[in-house]
Amino acid sequence: MADLATTAPLIRATGLRKSFGPTEALRGIDLDIDRGEVVAVMGPSGSGKSTLIHCLAGVLTPDAGDVTINGTELGRLDADARARLRLKEIGFVFQFGQLLPDLTAVDNVALPLLMGGASRRAARAESYAWLERLGLGDQGDKFPGQMSGGQAQRVAIARALATRPTVLFADEPTGSLDSVAAESVLETMLDVVREARTTVLLITHDPRTAAYADREVIVRDGRLSGSALVGRS
Ligand SMILES: Nc1ncnc2c1ncn2[C@@H]1O[C@H](COP(=O)(O)OP(=O)(O)OP(=O)(O)O)[C@@H](O)[C@H]1O
Ligand SMILES: [Mg+2]
């Protein structure tokens, strides 16, 4: 018999709908994401991309429809269980302003590890290792205000990956950077996630960024309007 745990999609969304007052942000989305897949989410401004990944990550509750991650249906969990699942399975990288300004880079990365129960010493050692992997081995003791935008985004990515999430959601993680910095941050991020076989949903407006993904999905007016395999060599 086929092993359901390995053949089922890692994320399955069915019939997702979400409105904000009169605005129908999601109008019925069905989406399966396989384990280890890197998916680019594209589409016009206001089409529902952020709302979609917030629903997939359990940050927002959809008005209708279900999201299952790794066999767990989010709608069946209470708020505490959802928060625990997020801490254990999910990493999130936002567009800007996400590092805590009063903590050094290494302490920003260590924070979710400490929340997960690691000792301070272990959390710091592991955080330095993540910074190293993202090319920031010598920046750990700086505060966010002392780093470039690209360095700060790498710290945010290190923080999101440090808990070894099953899924990484990234909402335009390089949207605030110039194209050279964006490309280098993205390449580093994708090297690390491919090596760890992390599943990734990456929102981007940039077709060159999307070309790094295995697949593109396009959101228009709260619906998926297309899904294409990006021929990765
Ligand atoms: N908290 C909210 N309150 C009210 N309306 C919202 C809220 N969040 C999103 N919306 C509306 O829902 C629609 C979808 O928004 P969403 O943020 O998902 O778009 P997006 O595709 O991520 O856009 P962008 O590319 O500009 O980030 C938009 O019309 C937006 O104005
Ligand atoms: Mg958005």
TrEMBL record:
The molecular function terms of the Gene Ontology recorded here are: ATP binding
Q: Does the keyword Transcription apply?
A: no
What Pfam families does the record point to?
ABC_tran
- Tell me the keywords, alphabetical order: ATP-binding, Lipoprotein, Nucleotide-binding, Transport
* Tagged with keyword RNA-binding: no
The ABC transporter domain is annotated at: 11-233
Stated name of the protein: Lipoprotein-releasing system ATP-binding protein LolD
| SMART domains membership | AAA
Domain of life, per lineage: Bacteria
